């Protein structure tokens, strides 16, 4: 991968990291964690049907939050590899990952086997 392509991919990764950090921050902004809020529901002040809906929404939010955290880890991993000069190589075989794949999926760790 040439330097120009590497700069393009790095810019994509930095933008994605900023986007993910903003989304993660919006989930935690209220001061209580999603993990804690899932267990806070009680039947004393709500109809059981509403409890189920609220529980579902909180679990959905927690799932999305965890997915975004994992995506952020992948983005940070790719940025670390760029800084170390190790970006763009299959982590199993050491073969170069095609530039087209890295542009489409900058966090790719492996070359697609043909």
UniProtKB/TrEMBL annotation:
Q: Which residues cross the membrane?
A: none
Which protein, by its recorded name, is this? Uncharacterized protein
Keywords noted in UniProt: Coiled coil
Gene3D superfamilies, from UniProt? Answer: DksA, coiled-coil domain
Q: Where are the zinc fingers (dksA C4-type)?
A: 90-114
Going by the entry's taxonomy, the superkingdom of the source organism is recorded as Bacteria
Transcription keyword on record:
no
Keyword Coiled coil among record annotations: yes
Q: Which residues form a coiled coil?
A: 3-30
